[in-house]
Amino acid sequence: LEIGENRTISATLGSYAIQRSLLAGAIGLGLVVIFMIVFYRLPGLLADVALALYVLIVLAVLTFTKTTLTLPGIAGIILSIGMAVDANILIFERLKEELWAGKSIRAAIDAGFERAWTAILDSNVNSMIVAAVLYFLGTSSIKSFAVTLFVGVVCSLLTAVTISRWMVTMVGQSHLGQKLHLFGVHQDAIQ
Known about the structure:
Elements: H1 11-64, H2 71-100, H3 105-137, H4 140-173
Helix pairs in contact: 1-2, 1-4, 2-3, 2-4, 3-4
């Protein structure tokens, strides 16, 4: 074994990388929020509220468990934000399909969540298995990624299936639920 190069880096490089990672996460989160509102309208806005609650829950769990946030840990949180949004996209696409088929808003909400549930569960369980394998077989930085990914996936499952569903159901039962264009479905597109 021959040493090819040896460098010493200052602590400011680490803080700079963390600041850049947090900025990237904030920009990514902002773009996701805009995308959800533009593409899914009212359900997208509700998903954004659930996503904000998701971020708060993840940070609370990580704080409560005294998890050290490293660069790989930040990457795990950012990845799990994408997965949280993915669950809502599956639900809202199913919801649109049900509305296009002519179902009432209440029936479409119930069917949309039920039809998306198996795909959401499969995806999240697979991600939790991968996070567990990474935690038990990985080194310290990989373990940090695995912990934040696992916590994020569990929290996204909670928010997508309970909080998003509750909010969409409440709005669906209100007068806003009768305005299908707020759900991204135009009246002339319904069969």
